[in-house]
Design brief:
Blueprint: H1 2-10, H2 18-24, E1 36-39, H3 49-62, E2 67-70, H4 84-93, E3 101-103, E4 109-110, H5 122-134, E5 138-141, H6 145-158, H7 176-184, E6 190-193, E7 202-207, E8 211-216, E9 223-225, H8 233-243, E10 248-252, H9 259-269, E11 275-279, E12 283-285, E13 292-294, H10 306-311, H11 315-326, H12 330-336, H13 361-373, H14 377-391, H15 393-401, H16 403-411, H17 429-432, H18 453-466, H19 473-486, H20 493-498, H21 507-519, H22 527-534, H23 536-548
Length: 549
């Protein structure tokens, strides 16, 4: 009876019971075995690469049969920034991670298990805390910050577990009369859990990534509701994960130490606990120490998700890279299934690294090159147009002035069995296409080192005479071979290799001279296609300019 009176004293306006909320948020009608996961950031607006990875893992765990939702955990108002939610939503969306349910902005959401923002769910938390008070599992605590600090000092001196528990839990057995008197006097209080944990007690659980973990059980009387009535993260997440019917919680392994608290909360609340999968932090090679450290938002520009958008890494490429660090067997699968959707890959939490995946921007770049090489010209043009509109106005103006011309550039050697991998991010496109535009072509040329200046000039002058812009692709290189033979070069590398003293070089060197004259470079995609795209007048002008120089 005393507990019931205490619950009425603390929560006089709570008119709904946990049973009402259980009915309001029933178990989901999903296929057997379907998983429900969530990404639950604070609305700070900053999306860390590690957070993107965690959201990616949660999304992949839910798969196509389950539900992945976005919950905003804004109980700590000090960390909140204006428009922080839309920043998180857009950050995920930029990389193709679109939750099935949850917050869409500060004021919008979708789904039947909301509100998906914790600050809008206080009435729900209060109903569950009221029930715990009724059951004698929670109590009001009027300890001041000064009292708590004194206890901490005493515990440090005695070298015992810090926190409020046992003999240190001053108000654990407070009477209704004392609570009523203190509240009437205007004293502030929190509501604490009356932990049923024993000092010698142990818990064990199976982590979906790390395997079996055993730990001491929780004996602390943790805070459930703060002085202003808002819940702590520990309590809110337990209520929300239950009512939103979360089956798998994927989160950073810094939360492992909190598992005893969380499992205890699920038990005292009468809930079935979700399965936990604790993700090791993404690591990076430290150049100073030659060791490994966590990816840091203070030290590493690539820690911010905005880095990838600004550099122009396609979201599909970033997702490909995320999967390579999520499951080590993905790369073998991708090699065997070059054109399959990533959704076909059987992602498993158990295949994730226990120690932490190593971030490697060089590998990301290689993955992105491979990914971009699989896109068709339309996809490349559309992506570059969208990226350059925000990040490179000069490039945007050039490619949109004549979209057909830009498309023809991006079509070169695209769609082959072995497509070239020249572009790793959209910020490299301007340099990649520079020789196609007079505005970008600086006239500097890198010549084959084994061909003399006199031979270069003779080759180019003669090529101008025989160049046919209407010639067929299959006739182009035989013509170069004829030119090579005429000017003292071997028709083929093998012929030159067998008798190097008899020739100035081979047909490949001759093609290199033409390539350098037309593009300024020694390494480009198919030269015939480049010249067809540039057009006869431009090719002749470039060759004449090279001769004059």
């Amino acid at each position: 009876m005393e507990n019931l009176t205490m619950s009425q004293l603390l929560f006089p306006s709570v008119d709904k019971t946990p049973a009402d909320y259980e009915e309001m948020y029933p178990p989901r009608a999903l296929k057997e075995g379907a998983k429900v996961t969530r990404f639950s950031p604070s609305p700070t607006g900053f999306l860390h690469f590690g957070s993107l990875f965690a959201a990616f893992v949660a999304s992949r765990t839910a798969g196509q049969d389950g539900v992945f939702y976005l919950r905003i955990e804004d109980t700590d108002k000090k960390r909140e920034v204006e428009n922080g939610v839309i920043g998180m939503v857009n950050g995920l969306k930029a990389f193709g991670i679109v939750p099935d349910e949850g917050a869409l902005s500060e004021s919008e959401e979708r789904g039947s298990y909301g509100p998906y923002t914790q600050s809008m769910r206080n009435h729900i938390y209060h109903a569950y805390v009221k029930k715990l008070v009724e059951e004698g599992l929670a109590y009001p605590c009027f300890m001041t910050e000064e009292e708590i600090a004194e206890i901490r000092e005493k515990q440090e001196a005695e070298k015992v577990l810090p926190g409020i528990y046992g003999e240190y839990a001053k108000y654990r057995d407070i009477t209704v009369e004392e609570a009523e008197r203190r509240i009437a006097a205007g004293e502030e209080y929190v509501v604490r859990l009356k932990s049923p944990g024993k000092p010698e007690g142990r818990i064990s659980f199976k982590d979906e990534i790390k395997g079996k973990i055993e730990m001491p059980e929780n004996i602390l009387d943790i805070v459930l509701l703060k002085k202003d009535g808002t819940p702590t993260y520990h309590f809110a997440h337990a209520v929300d994960d239950h009512l939103m019917r979360t089956t798998h919680v994927t989160r950073g392994d810094e939360w492992i130490s909190s598992v005893p608290i969380h499992l205890q909360l699920f038990r005292v609340l009468g809930f079935k606990a979700p399965k936990y999968a604790h993700i090791a932090p993404i690591m990076k090679e430290d150049e100073e120490t030659k060791g490994k450290r966590k990816l840091s938002k203070r030290k590493d520009p690539e820690a911010a998700v905005s880095f990838y958008a600004e550099a122009g890494y396609p979201s599909g490429a970033v997702n490909e890279y995320l999967m390579t660090i999520a499951n080590s067997n993905y790369e073998d699968w991708r090699r065997a299934n070059k054109t399959e959707s990533m959704d076909k890959f059987d992602f498993k939490l158990s295949k994730m690294s226990k120690a932490g995946a190593l971030f490697d921007v060089v590998k990301l770049h290689d993955v992105s090159k491979t990914y971009i090489s699989t896109l068709n010209a339309d996809e490349v043009y559309n992506a570059v147009e969208a990226w350059s509109a925000e990040y490179n106005k000069e490039l945007h103006a050039l490619i949109t002035a004549d979209p057909g011309y830009a498309h023809s550039i991006f079509s070169i050697e695209r769609g082959n069995k072995k497509p070239r991998k020249d572009i790793g991010k959209w910020s490299e496109v301007k340099d990649y296409i520079a020789y196609f535009y007079d505005e970008l072509f600086d006239g500097e040329r890198e010549w084959p080192q084994n061909v003399s200046e006199a031979d270069r000039k003779a080759l180019l002058e003669r090529y101008l005479e025989i160049y046919d812009p209407d010639g067929e692709a299959q006739d182009w290189f035989p013509q170069v071979q004829e030119l090579a033979a005429e000017q003292g070069f071997a028709r083929a590398p093998k012929e030159y290799k067998n008798a190097p003293d008899e020739f100035k070089g081979h047909a490949g060197d001759v093609a290199g001279v033409i390539r350098a004259a037309v593009t300024g470079r020694l390494n480009t995609p198919d030269l015939y296609s480049i010249m067809q795209t540039l057009g006869g007048d431009k090719v002749r002008a470039r060759i004449r300019e090279a001769i004059d120089k």
